[in-house]
Design brief:
Elements (H helix, E strand, L loop, with lengths): L1 H12 L11 E7 L4 E5 L12 H11 L5 E8 L10 H10 L5 E5 L7 E4 H4 L11
Parallel strand pairs: 3-4
Antiparallel strand pairs: 1-2, 1-3, 4-5
The protein binds zinc ion.
Amino acid sequence: MKQKLISAAREVAKNAYCKYSNYHVGAALLADDGTIWLGCNVENSSFGATNCAERTALFSAIAAGKRKFSAIAVVGGTDAEPASPCGICRQVLSEFCSSEMPVYFAGLEGDTIHTTTLGELLPLAFSGANLE
Ligand SMILES: [Zn+2]
């Protein structure tokens, strides 16, 4: 599944709207029902309005009614310097995904695939538990 998710993320990265940075990112999010949700970065002339690939994938899945996920792959950058999820995406993923969820990341090309977990990327995530 890891390679399938990376391949899907690499394919959708081609659709990135990144005219300002020319930094293509793709994400493939595996829901617990086996469906795969894709996202790419969507930049904006007002840079703060830009949306990352991971959140694009997650928000599409949420809009379709999905709530549980089992893995995500993110691709961007090079084999030597691959993109990993930014801080905002780590926090947003933590709303729906367990700290044990595998996170695969890799460059747009190359054979190296890094494997970590959401919890390793975002220890002590804010949960809002005291708000409930
Ligand atoms: Zn991000």
